[in-house]
Specification:
Layout (H helix, E strand, L loop, with lengths): L10 E10 L2 E11 L4 E5 L6 H8 L7 E6 L2 E2 L11 E4 L11 H11 L4 H14 L15 H12 L6 E5 L7 H16 L3 E6 L10 E6 L2 E6 L1 H5 L6 E6 L3 H10 L3 E7 L2 E6 L7 H7 L6 E5 L3 H13 L2
Parallel strand pairs: 3-8, 3-9, 6-7, 7-8
Antiparallel strand pairs: 1-2, 1-4, 4-5, 9-10, 11-13, 11-14, 12-13
Helix pairs in contact: 2-4
Length: about 325
Protein backbone atom coordinates (compact mmCIF):
# COMPACT_ATOMS: atom_id res chain seq x y z
CA UNK A 1 0.00 0.00 0.00
CA UNK A 2 1.39 3.42 -0.92
CA UNK A 3 2.02 6.17 1.59
CA UNK A 4 0.86 9.63 0.59
CA UNK A 5 3.64 12.08 -0.32
CA UNK A 6 5.26 13.67 2.68
CA UNK A 7 4.12 11.02 5.17
CA UNK A 8 6.61 8.77 6.95
CA UNK A 9 10.32 8.46 6.28
CA UNK A 10 11.74 8.51 2.76
CA UNK A 11 13.40 5.17 3.45
CA UNK A 12 12.69 2.62 6.18
CA UNK A 13 14.77 -0.55 6.46
CA UNK A 14 14.35 -3.46 8.88
CA UNK A 15 16.52 -6.57 8.92
CA UNK A 16 17.75 -6.02 5.35
CA UNK A 17 20.07 -8.85 4.34
CA UNK A 18 21.94 -9.84 1.19
CA UNK A 19 24.09 -12.92 0.74
CA UNK A 20 26.36 -14.04 -2.06
CA UNK A 21 26.85 -17.74 -1.45
CA UNK A 22 28.37 -18.13 2.01
CA UNK A 23 29.32 -14.43 2.16
CA UNK A 24 26.89 -12.03 3.85
CA UNK A 25 27.36 -8.62 2.23
CA UNK A 26 24.60 -6.86 4.19
CA UNK A 27 23.74 -8.36 7.56
CA UNK A 28 20.31 -7.52 9.00
CA UNK A 29 20.56 -3.73 9.02
CA UNK A 30 17.90 -1.30 10.33
CA UNK A 31 17.66 2.45 9.69
CA UNK A 32 15.30 5.25 8.69
CA UNK A 33 15.97 8.22 6.41
CA UNK A 34 13.77 11.25 7.20
CA UNK A 35 12.37 13.09 4.18
CA UNK A 36 14.23 16.19 3.06
CA UNK A 37 17.51 15.26 4.75
CA UNK A 38 21.04 14.49 3.56
CA UNK A 39 21.70 10.97 4.83
CA UNK A 40 25.32 9.83 4.81
CA UNK A 41 25.92 6.08 4.52
CA UNK A 42 29.56 5.74 5.49
CA UNK A 43 32.05 2.93 5.47
CA UNK A 44 35.22 1.60 3.86
CA UNK A 45 35.18 0.05 0.40
CA UNK A 46 33.60 -3.39 0.45
CA UNK A 47 31.51 -2.73 3.54
CA UNK A 48 28.11 -3.19 1.86
CA UNK A 49 27.19 0.36 0.82
CA UNK A 50 26.63 -0.28 -2.89
CA UNK A 51 24.83 -3.56 -2.23
CA UNK A 52 22.42 -1.72 0.05
CA UNK A 53 21.73 0.92 -2.61
CA UNK A 54 21.04 -1.77 -5.19
CA UNK A 55 18.41 -3.32 -2.95
CA UNK A 56 16.84 0.06 -2.18
CA UNK A 57 16.64 0.99 -5.86
CA UNK A 58 15.10 -2.37 -6.76
CA UNK A 59 18.01 -3.55 -8.91
CA UNK A 60 18.99 -6.39 -6.55
CA UNK A 61 16.72 -8.70 -4.57
CA UNK A 62 17.17 -8.96 -0.80
CA UNK A 63 17.44 -12.34 0.90
CA UNK A 64 15.67 -11.19 4.04
CA UNK A 65 14.16 -8.12 5.69
CA UNK A 66 11.87 -5.28 4.67
CA UNK A 67 12.47 -1.97 2.91
CA UNK A 68 10.09 0.82 1.99
CA UNK A 69 11.15 3.68 -0.28
CA UNK A 70 8.85 6.69 -0.58
CA UNK A 71 6.11 4.61 1.02
CA UNK A 72 6.43 1.70 -1.42
CA UNK A 73 7.53 -1.84 -0.60
CA UNK A 74 10.56 -1.75 -2.85
CA UNK A 75 11.35 -5.43 -2.38
CA UNK A 76 7.90 -6.49 -3.61
CA UNK A 77 7.19 -3.69 -6.13
CA UNK A 78 10.47 -2.06 -7.28
CA UNK A 79 8.86 -0.73 -10.44
CA UNK A 80 6.67 1.68 -8.47
CA UNK A 81 9.57 3.92 -7.45
CA UNK A 82 11.53 4.09 -10.72
CA UNK A 83 10.11 7.46 -11.81
CA UNK A 84 10.40 8.97 -8.33
CA UNK A 85 14.07 8.31 -7.59
CA UNK A 86 17.38 9.24 -9.18
CA UNK A 87 20.63 7.28 -9.05
CA UNK A 88 24.16 8.53 -9.62
CA UNK A 89 26.62 5.64 -9.66
CA UNK A 90 30.33 5.53 -8.81
CA UNK A 91 31.34 5.42 -12.47
CA UNK A 92 29.04 8.19 -13.79
CA UNK A 93 26.64 6.41 -16.16
CA UNK A 94 27.32 8.72 -19.12
CA UNK A 95 27.95 8.03 -22.79
CA UNK A 96 31.36 9.55 -23.41
CA UNK A 97 31.02 9.41 -27.21
CA UNK A 98 27.90 11.59 -26.95
CA UNK A 99 27.68 15.32 -26.30
CA UNK A 100 26.30 16.95 -23.18
CA UNK A 101 23.07 17.67 -25.07
CA UNK A 102 22.77 14.10 -26.34
CA UNK A 103 23.23 12.68 -22.85
CA UNK A 104 20.51 14.96 -21.50
CA UNK A 105 18.15 13.95 -24.30
CA UNK A 106 18.88 10.26 -23.77
CA UNK A 107 18.05 10.38 -20.06
CA UNK A 108 14.98 12.50 -20.72
CA UNK A 109 13.82 9.65 -22.95
CA UNK A 110 14.59 7.07 -20.24
CA UNK A 111 12.32 8.95 -17.86
CA UNK A 112 9.70 9.64 -20.56
CA UNK A 113 9.77 13.43 -20.23
CA UNK A 114 7.41 15.28 -22.55
CA UNK A 115 9.01 17.76 -25.01
CA UNK A 116 7.82 20.74 -22.94
CA UNK A 117 9.03 19.18 -19.72
CA UNK A 118 12.41 18.42 -21.29
CA UNK A 119 12.88 22.06 -22.32
CA UNK A 120 12.15 23.12 -18.75
CA UNK A 121 14.37 20.52 -17.09
CA UNK A 122 17.18 20.96 -19.62
CA UNK A 123 17.37 24.64 -18.72
CA UNK A 124 17.42 23.78 -15.02
CA UNK A 125 20.21 21.19 -15.41
CA UNK A 126 22.40 23.42 -17.57
CA UNK A 127 22.11 26.24 -15.06
CA UNK A 128 22.51 24.01 -12.00
CA UNK A 129 25.60 22.29 -13.38
CA UNK A 130 26.97 25.46 -15.02
CA UNK A 131 27.11 23.70 -18.38
CA UNK A 132 25.65 26.42 -20.59
CA UNK A 133 27.87 26.87 -23.60
CA UNK A 134 29.09 23.27 -23.36
CA UNK A 135 25.97 21.60 -24.76
CA UNK A 136 27.77 20.42 -27.93
CA UNK A 137 30.97 19.34 -26.19
CA UNK A 138 31.79 15.64 -26.17
CA UNK A 139 31.41 14.18 -22.70
CA UNK A 140 34.80 12.44 -23.07
CA UNK A 141 36.45 15.86 -23.35
CA UNK A 142 35.05 17.12 -20.03
CA UNK A 143 37.19 17.05 -16.91
CA UNK A 144 36.23 14.62 -14.14
CA UNK A 145 34.60 17.47 -12.19
CA UNK A 146 32.45 18.54 -15.16
CA UNK A 147 31.46 14.92 -15.92
CA UNK A 148 30.43 14.65 -12.29
CA UNK A 149 28.16 17.70 -12.71
CA UNK A 150 26.67 16.26 -15.89
CA UNK A 151 26.07 12.91 -14.18
CA UNK A 152 24.22 14.72 -11.40
CA UNK A 153 22.19 16.55 -14.04
CA UNK A 154 21.16 13.35 -15.84
CA UNK A 155 20.25 11.72 -12.51
CA UNK A 156 17.97 14.63 -11.60
CA UNK A 157 16.55 15.59 -15.00
CA UNK A 158 13.18 14.05 -14.07
CA UNK A 159 13.06 16.00 -10.76
CA UNK A 160 13.16 12.99 -8.39
CA UNK A 161 11.94 13.10 -4.79
CA UNK A 162 14.86 10.94 -3.62
CA UNK A 163 18.38 10.82 -5.01
CA UNK A 164 20.87 8.01 -4.41
CA UNK A 165 24.52 8.99 -4.86
CA UNK A 166 27.03 6.15 -4.66
CA UNK A 167 30.56 7.43 -3.94
CA UNK A 168 29.85 10.52 -6.10
CA UNK A 169 33.13 12.30 -5.32
CA UNK A 170 35.57 9.44 -5.89
CA UNK A 171 38.58 10.57 -7.92
CA UNK A 172 37.50 14.22 -7.87
CA UNK A 173 39.86 16.96 -6.69
CA UNK A 174 39.10 18.82 -3.42
CA UNK A 175 37.86 21.99 -5.14
CA UNK A 176 35.45 20.05 -7.37
CA UNK A 177 34.31 18.05 -4.35
CA UNK A 178 33.41 21.26 -2.49
CA UNK A 179 31.57 22.65 -5.53
CA UNK A 180 29.68 19.38 -5.90
CA UNK A 181 28.51 19.53 -2.30
CA UNK A 182 27.25 23.06 -2.93
CA UNK A 183 25.03 21.55 -5.64
CA UNK A 184 23.80 18.88 -3.23
CA UNK A 185 22.89 21.57 -0.70
CA UNK A 186 20.84 23.29 -3.41
CA UNK A 187 18.94 20.06 -4.10
CA UNK A 188 18.33 19.49 -0.39
CA UNK A 189 17.06 23.06 -0.15
CA UNK A 190 14.44 22.18 -2.76
CA UNK A 191 13.21 19.32 -0.57
CA UNK A 192 14.99 16.43 -2.30
CA UNK A 193 16.06 13.62 0.05
CA UNK A 194 19.69 12.65 -0.56
CA UNK A 195 21.17 9.24 0.26
CA UNK A 196 24.94 9.57 -0.13
CA UNK A 197 27.51 6.82 0.26
CA UNK A 198 31.13 7.76 0.85
CA UNK A 199 34.32 6.61 2.54
CA UNK A 200 35.51 10.22 2.96
CA UNK A 201 35.02 11.03 6.62
CA UNK A 202 35.31 14.79 6.02
CA UNK A 203 32.14 14.64 3.90
CA UNK A 204 30.17 13.23 6.82
CA UNK A 205 29.92 16.66 8.43
CA UNK A 206 27.84 17.80 5.42
CA UNK A 207 25.07 15.32 6.32
CA UNK A 208 22.11 15.70 8.66
CA UNK A 209 22.09 12.03 9.65
CA UNK A 210 24.74 9.31 9.41
CA UNK A 211 24.95 5.55 9.49
CA UNK A 212 28.30 3.74 9.65
CA UNK A 213 28.44 0.30 8.05
CA UNK A 214 31.35 -2.09 8.51
CA UNK A 215 31.52 -5.61 7.12
CA UNK A 216 27.82 -5.51 6.36
CA UNK A 217 26.69 -4.42 9.81
CA UNK A 218 25.67 -1.01 11.12
CA UNK A 219 27.99 0.02 13.94
CA UNK A 220 26.66 3.55 14.60
CA UNK A 221 23.78 5.81 13.60
CA UNK A 222 22.77 9.37 14.44
CA UNK A 223 23.63 12.99 13.75
CA UNK A 224 27.33 13.92 13.32
CA UNK A 225 27.27 15.57 16.76
CA UNK A 226 25.64 12.57 18.44
CA UNK A 227 28.12 10.16 16.89
CA UNK A 228 31.10 12.29 17.95
CA UNK A 229 29.86 12.04 21.54
CA UNK A 230 30.43 8.30 21.33
CA UNK A 231 34.10 8.98 22.13
CA UNK A 232 33.46 11.18 25.17
CA UNK A 233 34.58 8.40 27.52
CA UNK A 234 38.00 8.48 25.82
CA UNK A 235 40.34 11.32 24.92
CA UNK A 236 42.00 12.05 21.59
CA UNK A 237 45.56 13.34 21.52
CA UNK A 238 47.08 14.94 18.45
CA UNK A 239 50.83 14.31 18.21
CA UNK A 240 53.15 16.20 15.88
CA UNK A 241 56.79 15.19 15.54
CA UNK A 242 59.44 14.35 12.95
CA UNK A 243 59.68 10.55 13.16
CA UNK A 244 56.04 9.64 12.63
CA UNK A 245 56.62 5.97 11.78
CA UNK A 246 58.68 5.24 14.88
CA UNK A 247 56.23 7.11 17.09
CA UNK A 248 53.30 5.18 15.65
CA UNK A 249 55.05 1.90 16.45
CA UNK A 250 55.60 3.10 20.03
CA UNK A 251 52.00 4.22 20.42
CA UNK A 252 50.62 0.89 19.21
CA UNK A 253 52.11 -0.88 22.25
CA UNK A 254 52.03 1.93 24.84
CA UNK A 255 49.98 1.48 28.03
CA UNK A 256 46.75 3.47 28.04
CA UNK A 257 46.57 3.82 24.23
CA UNK A 258 43.47 2.20 22.75
CA UNK A 259 44.06 3.20 19.12
CA UNK A 260 46.77 5.09 17.22
CA UNK A 261 46.75 6.07 13.54
CA UNK A 262 47.83 8.68 11.03
CA UNK A 263 45.55 11.70 10.67
CA UNK A 264 46.87 14.01 7.97
CA UNK A 265 50.45 14.99 8.83
CA UNK A 266 50.05 14.15 12.51
CA UNK A 267 49.22 11.15 14.68
CA UNK A 268 46.06 10.66 16.67
CA UNK A 269 45.97 8.51 19.78
CA UNK A 270 42.77 7.49 21.54
CA UNK A 271 43.64 7.15 25.22
CA UNK A 272 41.88 6.50 28.50
CA UNK A 273 41.19 9.69 30.52
CA UNK A 274 43.61 8.66 33.27
CA UNK A 275 46.42 8.24 30.72
CA UNK A 276 46.38 11.87 29.51
CA UNK A 277 48.37 13.37 32.38
CA UNK A 278 52.07 12.87 31.81
CA UNK A 279 51.56 11.31 28.37
CA UNK A 280 53.74 13.89 26.61
CA UNK A 281 56.54 13.30 29.15
CA UNK A 282 56.34 9.54 28.56
CA UNK A 283 56.58 10.07 24.82
CA UNK A 284 59.56 12.41 25.09
CA UNK A 285 61.32 10.09 27.55
CA UNK A 286 60.99 7.31 24.96
CA UNK A 287 63.15 9.18 22.48
CA UNK A 288 60.70 11.61 20.86
CA UNK A 289 61.99 14.85 22.32
CA UNK A 290 60.32 17.02 19.64
CA UNK A 291 56.83 15.64 20.29
CA UNK A 292 54.10 18.29 20.46
CA UNK A 293 51.08 16.72 22.20
CA UNK A 294 47.70 18.38 22.57
CA UNK A 295 44.19 17.31 23.46
CA UNK A 296 41.75 17.73 20.54
CA UNK A 297 38.05 17.24 19.91
CA UNK A 298 37.39 13.84 18.26
CA UNK A 299 36.67 14.00 14.54
CA UNK A 300 34.32 11.62 12.78
CA UNK A 301 37.41 9.82 11.51
CA UNK A 302 38.50 9.31 15.15
CA UNK A 303 35.05 7.97 15.98
CA UNK A 304 34.99 5.61 12.99
CA UNK A 305 38.43 4.17 13.75
CA UNK A 306 37.36 3.61 17.35
CA UNK A 307 34.07 2.01 16.33
CA UNK A 308 35.82 -0.32 13.87
CA UNK A 309 38.28 -1.37 16.59
CA UNK A 310 35.36 -2.20 18.88
CA UNK A 311 33.58 -4.10 16.13
CA UNK A 312 36.63 -6.28 15.56
CA UNK A 313 36.94 -7.24 19.22
CA UNK A 314 35.71 -10.76 20.04
Amino acid sequence: MSTAPGQGPAISVRGLTKRFGSFTAVDGIDFDVPRGTIFGFLGPNGSGKTTTIRMLTGTSAADAGRATVLGEDVLAHPERIKQRIGYMSQKFALFEDMTVEENLRFYAGVYALSPDRFVEQRAYVLDMADLRGRENELTANLSVGWRQRLALGTATIHDPELLFLDEPTGGVDPVARRQFWDLLYELAGRGVTLFVTTHYMDEASHCNQLAFIYRGRLIAEGSPGDIRHDLLSEQVLEIRLADVDAALSWLETADGVEEAYLSGASLHAVVAPDAVAGFADRLRASGFADADVRLVEPTLEDVFVNLVARAEQP
